[in-house]
Amino acid sequence: MLIRFFLYSLLSLFLSCASGQLKFTVEKPTKLNLGSLILETTDTLIQVADAKSGNLFLSLPTTESFVQAGEANASVRYRMASFAIKDERQRTCNHQTITRIGVANGQFEILGTLSGKKCSTEFKFNIKPISEKEIEFKIELSDKTLNRIWLKYASSHDEKFFGFGEQFSNQEFKGKTPFLFTEEQGIGRGDQPITAGANLLAGAGGNEYTTYAPIPHYITSKNRSVFFDNSGYSKFDLSSSDSVVVEFWDTNLQGGLKASIWLGKNPKELVEAYTKKSGRFAPLPDWSYGTWLGVQGGTEKVNSVIEQAKAAGNPITALWIQDWCGRRVTNFGDQLKWRWYADETLYPDFKKFVKDMNAKNIQVLGYINSFLADTDPKKPGDDFTNSLLVEARAKGYLIKNAKGEDYLIQTVGFPAYLIDLTNPAAVKWTKEIIKKNLIDVGLSGWMADFGEWLPYDAKMHSGIDAKVYHNQYPVDWARINREAIKEAGKEGKIIFFTRAGYSYSNAHSTLFWEGDQMVSFGKNDGLPSAILGLTSSGISGYALNHSDIGGYTTISNPLKNYHRTKELLLRWAELSAFTPVFRTHEGNRPLKNWQVYQYTNKQGISSQSDEETVKLFAKIGKLHFALKDYLKELVLEASKTGIPVVRHNYLVEPTDTRLLKQKYQFFLGDDLLVAPITKSGAEEVEVYLPSGDWEQIWTGKIYKGNSEIDQEAPLGKPVAFIRVGGKYESLLRNSLKDLRK
Questions:
Q1: Is residue 502 part of a domain?
Q2: Coil, helix or strand for 302?
Q3: Of 446, 448, 382, which Cα lies nearest the Cα of 414?
Q4: Which positions make up the signal peptide (predicted)?
Q5: Which of 5, 118, 366, 427 is the most buried (most CB within 10 A)?
C-alpha cells in the first residue's frame, strides 16, 4: 500500500512537471454564446461561465495541454480486498492541437488531436448547458486503445476542496492527491505501530486515502460542485496552487470521460444539486431512533443483555444479531457462517424468537453479504457445509477467474466465492434468499456487508470488464437488497446498512455505516477518523451514516494490543449520540473488548464491563433518544434535499475560516454544534463557537460566538451547544431539558 502511494505521488509529480505543448490551428474565438452559457478565450485560458453572473464553471489553460491520453497496463496484487497497483505506461499523447472551437448540436465543441511518441488520436471535448447552474461535459478519443485520460483545469491558491466520498484522514484536500477505488480501508491507515505490522504481514495497512466508499464528487470554496460519472480507478492531483489534474482509467470502456459541474450560492445548494442527480435516502422508520444493541451468542445471552439494558433505562428499540446465521471462530476472532439462513442451534425456532422480540417492541436485525463461504482446508476436520454455495456453483451464479473457473477468494478466516451480480438469474436468486430467509422470518433489517472485494481480473457474466465494474459492484449490491425489500412490500419498514459504496449508492442504500475502525483513539483509523468519515461522506451524498460504537478491529500483538477500553467505548458512544443511528458492536474479539453489558456464560466466562458502564451507556442512549424529534426532521430534510444529517463545518458556516480549522467538531443539523472528546485521558475539550449565541446542553449557560472556550467533559456528558435563535432552538431545548435534572 505504501509502495502504491509512492508510485502514484511520483506519477502525479511527473504529470505536473511534464505538461505537454498546446497549439491552435484555428483562430481563437473571443466569445461564444450558447443559451445561458458563454465561452471566452484569452491568451492563457478557455473559460466557460454563466453569462448572467459571470461565475466560472470551468477554466482550461491554453499555455499547455489540458487534455492528455495514454495507454497503460496495471499490474494488480490483490489480497483480502487490499490492492497494490502499479501502472505501466506504454505510450502517452501529451501534445495537444486544437482545430476547432465552436457550437454544434446545442453544445460547445472543442476538437483537435493529441500526439506523442507512437501515439496519435483525435479528441472531442463537448460542453453542454443543462441550466444556468449546471453543465455536462464529455471527452472522447478516436483511438479506443487509449485507456487513460488526464484533464487539467485552472484552480486558485485559496480554493478549498471537500468531499471525495467517505474519507477518514482529511477534511479538506487542497495539496492532496486522493485516489478513488473501493477497497478495505486498511488496518491503521498510518497509525503506528499497527499499520507497519499490517503491511508487513498482509500488505493491509492502508493509507490516508484508502476507503470503502469513495465518490468522484467534490464541492469547492468557489461554490462549485464537480462530479465525474465514470467508475474506473481515478486520481485527483490537487497539489498545485493553480490547477487540478484529474486522471481516469479505462474511460475507453465507458464512452469517454463524463462529468457534471454545478454552480451555487452556497455549499448546501451544491449538495442538493448533486444528490438530485445521484439519489437520496428515504426516511427511516420510527423504531430506528432508539438504541440498537449489537449482541451475539444465542437466545439466553441476548435476552439477558436486553433485560439488563432496559432495567438501566436504556431506550432499546432494536437488537442487531449478526450471528443469526451461525458463529464461526477463526484466527481473526468471532466470525460468521456465510450461509444465509437462520442457525437454529444458537436461536431455536428463530421465527418465534423474532416474533417474541417484536412483542417487546424490539425489532430484530441480522446480517448478510454477497459471499458464499466454503469449507476451510486449513482447519482439520472442518465440518462446515453450505447448501447455498452448492446451488450457486451448480447454476453458474459465481464470478469467474481468467480460466473460467469459480473464483476462490481467501477472506479473513476462510475461503469464499462472490455472487455474480451481473447475472440476472443470480440476482433473482439472491433476492429470493433475502425475501425468504430474512424478510419472511420477520427481520426488520440487516447489515449488507462487503461489496469492495471484487478482484480486478474477475470475469463477469455480462461481459463487463471488472476494471470498470469493481467500483460499481457495491452499488449493485445495495440495489439488489433494496429491490428485494420493495418486492416484499416492505419499503420504509426495513433498514439495511452498507459500508462499501460508490456513485449512486445513495439512490439505493437505506443507511450507511463506516466499516471497521480500530478500537483506538488513532487519528487515522480510530475514533477521530469516524468523525471525518461522517462529515466527508455527507458532502458526497451519504446523508445517513453512523459507526460501530467502540470500533470493531481488535488486535492482540506482542508489540501493542489494540483492545477496547471502557473510556474508548463510552467516548465513542458520546460521539454516536449525535448521529442518526446509535448502534453497538462487540468487535471481532468480544472477550478482549470492554462491552456495554455485563454477562457471564455457563462456562463462567465474563464480558469485560462494570455496572457504571451499563448506567453511563444508558444515559448516553437516553441523550440520543431525546434527539429523536430533531433527528426525524433532519432525516426528512435529507430525503427531500440530500443535505446530510451530520454536517461538515463548511456546509453550515462556509465563511468562518477559524471554524474550518476545527477538524473534529461537527454539526448535527444546523442548530446543534458537537465537540467530542477524541484523545485518551482528556477530560475537557477546547471548542470554537461561530458567530451568534450558543447554549450548552447540560448547563443551559449561554456563550457568545466567534470565541474559543474550554469545556469540562466528564464521561456521559458530551459537549454540545444549541444555536440560540436557530430554527430548532425550542425543539432542542424542550427535548433535552429532562436530561439536565
A1: no
A2: helix
A3: 382
A4: 1-20
A5: 366
Please state whether the peptide bond connecting residue 315 to the residue before it is cis, i.e. omega within 30 degrees of 0: no
Catalytic: which of 449, 514, 671, 695? 449
Whole-angstrom distance, CA of residue 146 vs CA of residue 732? 57
Neighbours of 104 (CB within 10 A): 10
| CA separation for the pair 12, 8 (Å, rounded) | 6
pLDDT of residue 18: 62
Low-confidence ranges of the chain (pLDDT < 50): 1-17
Of 336, 331, 330, nearest to 296 (Cα)? 336
* Start-to-end CA span in the chain (Å): 51
Instruction: Assess if residue 525 is contained within a domain.
Output: no
Count of domains in the chain?
A: 2
Q: Is 452 a catalytic residue?
A: yes
Of the residues 166, 476, 514, 516, which is catalytic? 516
Asked which of 263, 288, 319 is the last residue of a domain, the reply is 263
Domain assignment present for 461: no
pLDDT of res. 2: 38
Q: Give the global pTM.
A: 0.96
Tell me if 14 is assigned to some domain: yes
Q: Give the model's pLDDT for residue 16.
A: 39
Residue with cell 499490517: 198
Can you give the residue range of the structural domain that contains 666? 652-740
Q: Provide the pLDDT for residue 321.
A: 97
Residues 586, 587, 589, 593: what is their CA dihedral angle, to the nearest 10 degrees?
-60
Distance of alpha carbon 184 from alpha carbon 582, whole angstroms = 23
Among 183, 272, 452, 671, the one annotated catalytic: 452
Within a 10 A sphere around the Cβ of 693, how many other Cβ atoms? 16
Mark whether 449 is an active-site residue.
yes
Alpha helix stretches (DSSP H) within 312-448: 350-359, 387-395, 424-433
For this structure, is 356 an active site residue? no
CA distances from 645 to 399, 491, 670 (A): 37, 21, 9
